[in-house]
Description:
Layout: E1 2-3, E2 9-13, H1 15-27, H2 31-35, E3 48-52
Antiparallel strand pairs: 1-2, 2-3
Amino acid sequence: MALLPSGRHWCIDDLPLRQLLEELRLNGLRLPELIQIETIVDLRPYFRFMWLLPIGADTKPNSTFHPPHPCLRA
């Protein structure tokens, strides 16, 4: 689990990608969706970046949007 300089822990959840691959393995219904993944940017919907907070931590959202790095743009 990664630790930021601020002391916050974060992780990358790949459950959406694993679900896509499992559905493909079981019934092949999402093959068109899989073959449309050509670049790093195309993978974005299949990964979630999450902050991990200790029990009892303030859960009030305090987030800001940061545009993707130029190398990740299509």
